[in-house]
């Protein structure tokens, strides 16, 4: 299989999954328990994504001090009710600064 | 536009909610879209051509799957297994679609187009808003800005791969998790069951990381939300 076939097959497959969720019959989702489940799924998946992006590299767990300090700075900014973009700039800035210092 | 019962008719702060949603959407679209630089560079380093990297961003438009395919190609892995793995990684977008269907309420060709944008970032922004019209504004603002920036930076990253320094040096790797954290923050500080689910999901994903192929642990973390299916209905 050429790389082109892999690229296009991956694109189509990813699109099919996105569409699949959107066209799920509403009456399946009308049950209050299913509704509550789909409400909470993004919380679970996005938190898992944060954890993996922060602490994993492929299949190995790693502790990158600069990255974790950046995320810690993001938490501090959130606790201080900083606006969204400020949170991002602070997080990236702290990580970049620490790496510049050779951490 | 129809108004749902969760939204007060003509609430004076509806305009403010919508502009907050647009601000969130632009912030995520532009900031997270910058990691297209990293993808473009990684794809070309892995052996894809510039055109292949760009077509993958245009067609797949879901970062984790794209990085996964590039990683397998770069590591000399099988293309079939690589494609299947990358598509499975996109499985969470199907769950997002189930959540967003009622918020977006799109039919026909609009639904076909909207489906392409059902991903982590748009879901995070849409579900962080109050009220359906703000959620929709957030979804589409994120979708359009992210699509433009992600594809533009993919091209830049792929074309300039040799000249581009390490994206980690400027802290690009922190932008993704920081953005998701900021968007989830209000829900994490609001409900105790949300915090429980978040902690369980993070634990499951990290524990499964050494055991399962990349991407699967995040998908598996959805089971943290399963107690909602078993328990009798709680007050929202």
Automatic annotation (TrEMBL), chain A:
Keywords: Membrane, Transmembrane, Transmembrane helix. InterPro entries: Brnchd-chn_aa_trnsp_AzlD (IPR008407). It comes from the Bacteria. The chain crosses the membrane at residues 40-56, 68-98. Pfam families: AzlD. This is AzlD domain-containing protein. It comes from Actinomadura soli.
TrEMBL record, chain B:
Pfam families: AzlC (PF03591). It comes from Actinomadura soli. Belongs to the AzlC family. The chain crosses the membrane at residues 67-89, 139-162, 168-185, 197-230. The keyword Transmembrane helix applies. This is AzlC family ABC transporter permease. The keyword Transcription does not apply. It is found in: Cell membrane. Keywords: Cell membrane, Membrane, Transmembrane, Transmembrane helix, Transport. GO terms for cellular component: plasma membrane.
